[in-house]
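Async update (no meeting this week)

Hi team, since we skipped the sync, here's where things stand on the single-chain job. The sequence we agreed to prioritize is pasted below, unchanged from the tracker. I ran it this morning and attached the output directly underneath so nobody has to dig for it. Comments welcome in thread, and please keep replies under the output.
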Amino acid sequence: MYPPRTPPRNGFGRCDDCDRAVLWCTTTANRVAIAIDPPEDATGNQAIHIDTEGRYWARQLTQARPKVEIREVLRRPHIASCPVGRARAASRRRTTSRARTGVRPVRWQR
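Output:
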């Protein structure tokens, strides 16, 4: 059997990279943990709300739902302010894009 799936982190904690205080939320789209900066920010793009069991949920503002709804607060994702995380994400984007470029040669080109 497979080991039991651990639930995503939720609540206040620390960033693994820079050790700053963050709010761990579960995304409503695909149920993964995302680090959010704790202070409220009117320029943020993450709408955070708490359910009845005390779990924090994050939803990104989209064209379909561009405004904050009842009991939601706007905050910014931590990756936007984390110095280590931004550099790591940028290097990951560079390496993955290189791996996907180019085409496999056909038999007569080898």
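Quick observations from my side:
Helices lie at 83-100.
Residues 83-100 form the longest helix (18 residues).
Reply here if anything looks off.
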